[in-house]
Amino acid sequence: MDLSNLKPAKGSTKNVKRIGRGQGSGRGGTSTRGHKGAGSRSGTSKKIGFEGGQMPLVRRVPKFGFKNINRKEYRAINLDTLQGLVDTHAVDVINIEVLRQYGLTGKNDLVKILGQGELKAKLQVHAHGFSASAISAIEAAGGNAVKL
Predict the structure, then answer these.
(1) Nearest by Cα to 108 from 79, 84, 134, 72
(2) Is the pTM of this model over 0.85?
(3) Neighbour count for residue 38 (Cβ, 10 Å)
(4) Mean pLDDT taken over the chain
């Protein structure tokens, strides 16, 4: 083994034709850049979304609607989910920490209690929002709803 028969490891190199290495290489001359124009010069780059002078798609498509940047997204939890918590874990106070502990909300979620399902247990429920049907169902069962 000597320097004359060293080769790179198999798969470590790609078989890429190098451009700009003279006419004999087959990729000399303009080096695949074409003749004249900004694209033939060094340091050129196209803007994102540029379509060769054609009106770009983002400008052709009509815009509509409204996106409220102050919108608050709530994690919705129904009464039947709360009843399931009572049945499986025997809790009597439901607050954000309890919901987070049992994997029903995330760290920064706002929670809204909705009125789907039936609630039999007397609960004290703390949340960021309640639907009218949820408040009436919680109070009908003997509990109370505390808005944070």
Answers:
(1) 72
(2) no
(3) 9
(4) 92
